[in-house]
Amino acid sequence: MNSQNKAFGFIQDHHLQLLPVILLVAVAMTILSESFMTSQNMINLANRVSINLIIASGMTLLITSEGIDLSVGSTVGLSAVGAAIYFQNGWDASFGPYGAIVFGVAVGAAIGLVNGILVALIGLPAFIATLGTMLAVRGLVFITSSGRTIMGFDPRFIEVFSGFTFGIPRAVIVAGLTALVAAYVLNKTTTGRLLQGLGGNERCLYTAGIRVKRLKLGSYVMMGMLAGLAGLTLAASMSAAEPFAGSWYELDAIAVVVMGGTALTGGRGTVMGTVLGAILLGLVANSIILLGISAYYQTFVVGLMILAAIVMGSPVLTGARAN
Amino acid sequence: MTDARIIGGAGRESSGLITMLPAAIESMFRLSWRALRESWGLILALAILVLIFSQASPYFLNTLVLERILTNASFTLIMATGMTLVIATGGIDVSIGATLALSSMVAATLMNLGTPVLPAAMAGLLLGAGIGAFNGSIISYLKLQPFIATLAMLSLARGMTLIISGGSPAFDLPEAFTSAFKDEMVMVIGLGGLLLTMLVMHRTRLGIQIRGIGGNENTCYICGVRVNALRIGVYAFQGIMAVLAGYTLTASFDAAEPTAGLSTEWLEAMAAPIIGGNTMAGGRARLFGTLMGCLILATMRSGLNISGVPTAWQQVAIGGIIVGAVTLDVLTNRKKVS
Amino acid sequence: EDRMALYERFGEIPVPSKEYRIGVILKTFNNDYFIDLKNGFQDAADKYGVKVEFFAAPGETDLLIQKQLMEDMLVRQFDLIAVNPSSTSNLLEPAARATKMGIPLINVNDAYISKEDQEKHNIDIISFISTDWAEQMRHHVRYCAEKLGDEGGQIAHIMGFPGSTAATQRLEGYETELAKFPQLESVAVLPADWDRKKAMDVAADMIQANPDIKCLSASNDNMALGAIQALKNAGKLGDMIVMGCDGIPDAVTAIQNDELTASVAFMQYENGYNTIEAAILHLEGMGDKIPETLFANQEIWDKSNIDDKIANYGRYYSGMAKLTN
Amino acid sequence: MKNILTASKICKQYAGTRALKEVDFEIGEGEILGLIGENGAGKSTLMRILCGIEQPTSGDIVMHGKPVEFSGPQAAQAEGIAMIPQEVLLVDELTVVENIFLGHEESGAFGLSKRQMLADTRAILAELDSQQVDPEHLTGNLPKGSQQMVAIARRVMQGGDVFVMDEPTASLTGEETQSLFKLLKKLKGEGKASVFISHRLEEMLEICDRIVVLRDGEHVGNFINDDTLTKDKLVAAMVGSAVANEFARTVSHVGELMLETDKVVISTFQGRKTHPISIQAHAGEVVGITGLAGVGKTELAHVLSGLRPVVEGELRLRGRSITLRSPVDALKNKIGLVSEDRRAEGLVLELTALANMTLTSLKKLSRLGRIEKDRERQLGLDMKDKLNMRTEYLGRDANHLSGGNQQKVVIIRQLCSEAEVLLLDEPTKGIDIGAKAEVYRLIGDLVAEQKAAILFSSEPQEVLGVCDKLYVLTSYGFLGPYAKGALDYAGLMALEFGTATSDTPMEAAE
Ligand SMILES: Nc1ncnc2c1ncn2[C@@H]1O[C@H](COP(=O)(O)OP(=O)(O)OP(=O)(O)O)[C@@H](O)[C@H]1O
Ligand SMILES: Nc1ncnc2c1ncn2[C@@H]1O[C@H](COP(=O)(O)OP(=O)(O)OP(=O)(O)O)[C@@H](O)[C@H]1O
Ligand SMILES: [Mg+2]
Ligand SMILES: [Mg+2]
Hints:
Chain A is mainly α. Chain A is 73% helix and 1% strand. Chain B has 13 helices and 2 strands; from the N terminus they run H-H-H-H-H-H-E-H-H-H-H-E-H-H-H.
C-alpha cells in the first residue's frame, strides 16, 4: 500500500512515526509548565532546532544515498571562523558584508569537495574518510582562529540570519527553506530519485549508465555547503565564532535523521521524518530546562527520551517494514 | 540430523587429536600469511610513519617511546577488538566511551564504599556486559538501527555516570585493583584479548556465523544460525572489552573520571578497525588489520607529540594520516567499499 | 615599572646560569583564557632568557590525550615541566615518571595534584601556582547579594562541562556561599559545557521558565556572553545582573557596553609569569624562596572600575591591545 | 505411496494482493512433484509457507500424519523440510565451505574441524559434478550456476525428508541441470520427496512424477506424468489458453549495420583471453550469441556495454569506431544492457517497479529536474501493457515482485530509454512461458523498428528459435554467423562441445 503511494509521491505514513511522541511531550509540557506554550518559548525552541535542521536536511539526502559525513561539525566551525576572519581582514570593504555569506558557503563547498573526491573518486569508506576530514578541519579551525573567540561581525551580516520576518526568526526561516528544498529534491526530482537508487543498488545505477561518481561528488559538496550555511547561521546568532563551534553537531544531525526513519543502509529516506526528529530533540532539551531538571540528570533524561522515541518508532511496533 | 545426511560421511571417525593438531597449526600459518597479504598496505603506511618521525625527531627511536606506543595501541586495541566483531555483524557501537566511564565509576565507587576489589570489578564487568546485551537486544528484537540505539545508550550511560559521581572523580583506589590493570597489564589485556578473539573467530563456528550475520542475516536465519542470540553476545562482548579498557584507564589515573572516554577513546576504537580494512557493511573480521590500525594511530600521536608539532597542526596531520593510510590500503589491495 | 609593583612575588630573580628548557603542558590553547596564561609564560621566558615549549590537548576534556602528550614530553629532557592537568588524576602517572627521572614539576592552574596523591605516587611538586576557583563564584554570590540588598531575589547558575574540575569546584563555591544568604533563592543550576551557543539556548529557556530571575551567574565569560545574547533576543537585556568569570577581552568589552554586569578577573597572565620565575629560582637552587601554594589575585570588574583596570592591566591581556588603543 | 506432507486450504494475503487462495497440496514419499504456473502465480509463496519462511493467512499443514505449525524456517527444518529458495541465498563474504556448513559447523577437539568439512564439501560437490568449484573460494565471485550448485549442496548436506527447490535450473546450464536430476533421482531412491519448480516445461516432463499447476494463486491442475502428458496440456492449464509457437515473431527487413566488433579479444572473469570475436548486428535483426557457461557470453555483453575493457580489436557503431569507457558512453550511444544478474545489477530493490523502469529515462520525463509523475506513470502503463504486467505491480517495491516480473521490469527499462542496440543477457531466465513468448515478440517488434538486438543465451531452443543469425562462443574458437535454420539442436551442441566436423559458416546474413 504505502509503496504504492510512494510511487505517486505521497508521504509514506510511517514518516510521521515521531508525531505522536512529539504531541505527547508537548501536551505533557503544556500541563507541567505554564511557560511552555508561550510564543517566546516557541521561538526559543525553533531557534534551538534550526541549525541542526539545516545540517540534518542535507544529511538525509546523503544517508539516503548510503553516504555519511562526520565532518559537518568541523565544517560549521570553519565557515563560522571564516566569516569572522572575512570581517577581521576588512574584506567587506571590497566585497561588501554579504560577501561573507558567499565565503562561508564556499568554505563548506571546498571541504565537501575534498570529501567527495576521497569517497567518490578514490573510493574510501565514507565513514573513515569524513572522520579524517572531521579531525583535520577542526585543526584548521584552531589554526585560523588561533584558538580565540572572534567577534566583530558587520551588523548587516548578522541581520540576515538573526533578524525577524513576520515575527519568525530568520534562522528558522533559513532552516525551514532548507528542509523544504531537501524534501522537494528527494521526492520530486531526478536527483532525488537517483540518490535513492544510489543508496539502494549502486552497481545497478552504474550498469544502467548513470554518472554515479558525479552524483556522489555532488551530494558531498551539497552537504558541505549546507554545513557552511549552518556555520554562518551559528556565527550570526552568537555574533561570535568560537574554536569549538559545531563540535559534535554531526552526531545530533545523524541522530535526528535516523530517528526520523531514514535507514543508514541507504535506499529509503524521509526529510519529513528528519524534521520531526529535529523538533523532538529540541523539544526534549527545552523541556528539561523548563522543568528545571538538575544539571547532573539532564544527559540521562535526554537519553531516556531518545530511547523512548526510537522504540516507539521501531519497525516492529509500528509494523512498518524493517530495512 | 547427521543421520539424514546422504553424502560425505566418509572418514568422520579419523577426526582426532592426531589429525587436528597439524591442521590447527597449518591453518594458523595460512591465516597469518593471509593477514600479511591483506594488510601490507597498512604495514607500508606504518613503516613510512616510523621513517618520517625518526627523521623528524632524535628522540623518537627510543625504547621508552616504543613502550608508550605499544601501551597506547594496546589500550585502543582492547575496545577495537570488540568493535571489529560488532562491525563484522554490520553494526556499530558508539556507546563504548560512556560504558567505559560508567562501569569504571560504578566499580570505583563500590570499592570506595568498602566492597572488596574482586566483586566490585566483577560488578563493573557485569554492568558492561549488561549494557552491551541491552544494545544487542533492542537492535535485534526491535529492529532498531545500531547507530541510533547505541547513541541513546551513550546518553543514558553518560548521564548515569554524572548522577553517580556528582561530577567529581572517585579516587585513591585499592592497590590490588590499580596494579592489576596498570602498565604492562594494558598490553597483556590488549594482545591477550586480540589473540583469544582471533582464535575464536578462526577456530570456532562463532567466527563464521558472526561474519555471516554481517554478510547476509537472512541466510543465516534460514540456515538455523541463532542470529539474535549471537548479535546480543557480540555487543555484550564489546561491552566487556569497553569495561576492561575503562579499568586500565582508571588504574593509570588511579581514579575513575566522570569525563573519561568522552571523545578520542571511542573515536579511535571505531577508526582503528576501519583503517584496518573492516567494512561498515559487515561480513569481514580482519583482526590483524585492526591491530595495524591501532599501531598506526598510536605511532602517529606519539610521533607528532615528540616532533613537537603544535596541537592544532597535529589535528590536521592526524586527519591527513588516517585518510592517507586508508587510501594506501584501498589502492594496494582492498576492493572498493561503499 | 608597574608590573613589578603589581606582581613582584619573589624579590630579585637571579640571571639563569644557562638557557633552561622548560616544558609547559596546558589543558588547551583553544580558549582566550589559556592563551593569556601562555603569554604570561612567554613574556617571562623572554625577559629572563629561558626557553619554553608549549603543549596542550585539543580540548579540556581530552584527559587521555593530555596524559599521552606528557608521557611523550618526558623523552625530550626538559629541565623543568609546568603542568596544568585537565583533571586531578589524569597526569599522576607521567608526573610520577617525571619525578623518577628527576624532572622538577610545577602545578599551574586548576586541577590540583593533591598532597595525598603526591605522596601515594611519589610525585615532587615544587609549588601550586593557581587561583581559588570556588572563591570566584563566592565573589559572584556576594556581589549579587550586595546589589540586590535585603529583599534579595532569584539567582541562577550556568555551569561548565559537568565533571570538569573547574566546573565542579566553581559550582561548589556558588552553593556553599549561597547558604550564607537566605534572601537569595537559587532557582536553577544548568550546564552549558563552556559553550556559548549552548549557554544562549539554556539561558533563553531558563528566563522563560523563571521570569523573575534577578541575577545570572555564569561559570565563565564565554557562557555569560551566550546568556547576554539570549537576553538580547528576548529583549530583557539590562533587566538582570549577569556575571561571568575570567575577564577575557570580549567580556571586558561587554562590560564597557553595559551588557555584562561584572566578571571575576584574575591574572592568568600572572600565573604564567610567576611560574617561570619560580622555575628559575628552583633551577638556580633558591627553591626555599618559593611558597607551596601561590594564588593569583582576583577581583570583581564591573562598570565602576573597568576602565582603570584596563589602563593598568590591559597590556597583560594579549587580547587587550584592541581595547587599550 | 503414503503422504509425507499435506497442506489444505492455504491462503496468503499480502498488503496488495492475495497470493494464494485455498490451495490444497500433498506430496508422497519418493515422489518428485513439479509445480508450475505463470510468474506471480504463487509458487514461491506456497513454498515459502511450506518451509516456514512465511506463515499462511489461513489453512493448515499436516506432516507425517500430525498437524504442524512452522513458526520459522528452523521449525520447518526440524520437521525435515529442506528449502532451496528462488533467489540463491548465500553469504557472498563467506567461502563455499563456510556457506555449506553455515549453522551446522563441525567442531572437534581443537575447534572447527576444517579438514573434515573440506573433505565433505569436496565429496558433495563431486556428487553434483561441480568439482571445479574451489571450496575455499568466496561464493560472491562464483559464476551464478556454481552459486546455485553450492546452495543445493548445502541443503543436501544438511539433509531432510522433503526437498523444496524453487527454480533451481533457472541459472543452471544443461550439464548442471542433468547432475541435479541425477541427485533428485538419488533422493527419490531413498524415499525422499522433492518439490521442483521450473518454467522449463521440458525439464518438468523429463523429471517429475506428478505436476501441479497454479494460476493466480489457485490450484488449477494436477497431472500424473505419464507419456500422454504433453507440454501443450500444461501450458493450457497454466495460461488458461493455449500459447501458439512461443518463438513466433515478426521477421523484418534487415537494415543498416549497427554494432560491429572487429576481432575483439576480451578476458573472462576467470582471466582467460577469448578468441577474436567478430560480430555484425544490423538494424532489424536478432543476433544470437550462445555457448556453454563460462565461455564468456556475459563478459562479451559487459564489454559491449562498457562494463569491461576491450583487450584487443575495435568496436564500431554505424561504421564509426567507438570506445566505451563506461556504461555512460554506452547509454550515450544508445546501447542498452539487460543484465543477466537481475538482483545484483538489474534492479534497485528499494525502488518501485515504476521507478526501476524509468531509471534511465528520467531526463525526458522531467522538466527542470522535476519528475512529472503522471507522464512517468503513463509511460509505465504503456510499457507494462506490452508485457501484460498487472497495473498494481507498478507501485510495488521491486523486491516484492515475483521473479519473472522483476525480469520484465529490467527489460522495460531498456525499452523506455529508447536503446537502439539492445544487449539481452539471458533475458528469459526464470520467466514463464507466456512471458517468454511476449519477450520474444517484443524483441521482434523492436527490431521491426529498425533496432538491433543481441541475445546472449545458453538455451539452445531459444537461440535456435528466435535468432536470425547465430554466433557460437566456444573454448576452441569463435564460430559463425549461422543463418536461421542453418543449425539444428544436435548441430549446435556438437559445435558447443567441439565435437563437430568443421561446419561451413554462411556469409553475413542478408
Ligand atoms: N512480500 C510481498 N508483499 C506483497 N506481495 C508479494 C510479496 N511477495 C510476493 N508477492 C506477490 O504474491 C504473488 C505470488 O508471488 P510468487 O513469488 O509466489 O510468484 P511465483 O509463482 O513464484 O512467480 P515466479 O515464477 O516469477 O517466481 C505475486 O503477485 C507477488 O507479486
Ligand atoms: N568475477 C566476477 N564478477 C562478476 N560476475 C561474475 C564473476 N564471475 C562470474 N560472474 C557471473 O557468473 C556468471 C557466469 O559467468 P561466466 O563468464 O562463467 O559464464 P557466461 O559465459 O557468462 O555464461 P552464462 O552467461 O551462461 O553464465 C555470469 O553471469 C557472471 O555475471
Ligand atoms: Mg517464484
Ligand atoms: Mg552469462
